[in-house]
Amino acid sequence: ETGVTQTPRHLVMGMTNKKSLKCEQHLGHNAMYWYKQSAKKPLELMFVYNFKEQTENNSVPSRFSPECPNSSHLFLHLHTLQPEDSALYLCASSQAGIHYGYTFGSGTRLTVV
Amino acid sequence: AQTVTQSQPEMSVQEAETVTLSCTYDTSESDYYLFWYKQPPSRQMILVIRQEAYKQQNATENRFSVNFQKAAKSFSLKISDSQLGDAAMYFCAYNPSGTYKYIFGTGTRLKVLA
Q1: Cα–Cα distance for residue pair B10/B110, rounded to 1 Å
Q2: Which residue of chain B is at minimal alpha-carbon distance from A4?
Q3: Are A42 and B102 a contacting pair at CB < 8 A?
Q4: Tens of pLDDT along A65-82?
């Protein structure tokens, strides 16, 4: 499968649960990103991985824990979330150093109850 | 701080007509890239058009074109011959050269009326 694939598409979790979001790309890109999209707010950059190394953590609370085992896969581990963490979480990839834009996945719609 | 402003939360256009979505940005950089992304109900953000700040010529992609005014820090998107499939959220994004970070605006919801 080509492009950027995110699973699951929807996720409902309680505040005490632990869950993980998965992102996979087969575009040969070496940079991957997590963004948070909330209604009426700009997309918020959460984490950047370049060649599997985390290069940016945009002051994200520790209840969000990213993992990048290789250049094709990116995870976002979630634990003890708050209702205000409910949002669309978007994964994106790009070729590092080349400004041709991101390729995005379809996102995971997260609801924290 | 670098910011991107989309002042139109929502716009409507008749099918086959032309619409312009506005975007302004604030930066002290001289080298950067600008993008317009489309997000349909399927949620996947799709790149519509890209502009390099050092190029004076406005980018075009089929029915989509931009009006890039570097001195005014303005980057508007014109959609010609609007189609029902153009209905979506449109996001303007700014990317400083040499960085991975993209700064997005809050988006403009475009409705296309049949």
Answers
A1: 6
A2: B44
A3: no
A4: 999 999 899 999 999 999
